[in-house]
Amino acid sequence: MSDLDRNYASPFGRAAGRADAATVDAGLRSYMLKIYNYMTIGLAITGLAAMGVYMAATSDVATAARIGNTYLTPFGVAMFVSPLKWLFILAPLVMVFAISFGINRLRPATAQMLFWAFAALMGVSLSSIFLVYTHTSIVRVFFITAASFGALSLYGYTTKRDMSGMGSFLIMGLFGVIIASVVNLFLASSMLQFIVSVVGVLVFAGLTAWDTQRLKNDYIYGYASQGGDIAERAAITGALSLYLNFINLFTLLLQLLGQRD
């Protein structure tokens, strides 16, 4: 009989196994809680940045520039009308690639600050939704997104089903959504936009559950034995993945369920 079998055949071996499992479980809970805390703080920063930009960009006083029924301040013209708007639309995309590809060369504190900066830039980019949708529908869709995300992430964490095979299929679906969205920038088809929104919701719903299970397994089979800066950086990239799933779910559901102003 092998040494492993002998260890678990003895009371001491079984006790050691239970102790090791309990240690991993405690570490896993702490690791996942850190990821969710980072994600939640990132979402709070995004929301505050979006609301702050919207409030600074709009005015109750009639001005020459406006979007719909909303009057813009000079700052609002620069943010939502001038070519400068493209800088803030594209900046989060550039930054997320920088964080993703450079994370292993960054100190955890630096990676964390870059994540907060990215969340703020995303808020600036999303601030225009307050000009398009009613504030009531934005709040309603946010809570729908939060409830859906929570349920999907809980499923990914607790399910015994191996979801690893879904990864490549979901990534292919993600690229399909991106390509269709770019094409629709030129076609401006409401039907294609509806299809993209529906498919996108399904893709990011699947990615939420898949990413949660992936992060759990990454800790159990890798970071539990490493810890330190490696686990900290992994928690930040994990929070970034879940954050992006949440933001994309929110914007796609807003396109489907939001009431236009």
Count the E strands. Answer: 3
Number of domains: 1
Instruction: Report the C-alpha radius of gyration, rounded.
Output: 22 Å
What is the typical, i.e. mean, pLDDT?
A: 88
Percent helix range: over 70%
Across the major sheet, the strand order is 1-3-2
Distance, first to last CA: 72 Å
Strand content: under 5%
**From the helix content, strand content and strand pairing, which structural class follows?**
mainly alpha
Which descriptor suits the 3D outline? globular
Compressed to H and E, one letter per element, the order equals: HHEEEHHHHHHHH
Could you give a short account of the major beta sheet? Answer: 3 strands, antiparallel
Instruction: Give me the number of helical elements.
Output: 10
Q: What low-confidence regions span 5 or more consecutive residues with pLDDT below 50? A: 1-17
What can you tell me about this protein's structure?
There is one protein chain. This protein is mainly alpha-helical and 261 residues long. The protein has one domain. 81% of the residues lie in helices and 3% in strands. It contains 10 helices and 3 strands; from the N terminus they run ααβββαααααααα. Strands 1-3-2 form a 3-stranded antiparallel β-sheet. A hairpin with a 2-residue loop joins β2 and β3 (70-72). α2 packs antiparallel against α9 (190-221) and α9 packs antiparallel against α10 (228-257). The protein is globular and about 70 Å long.
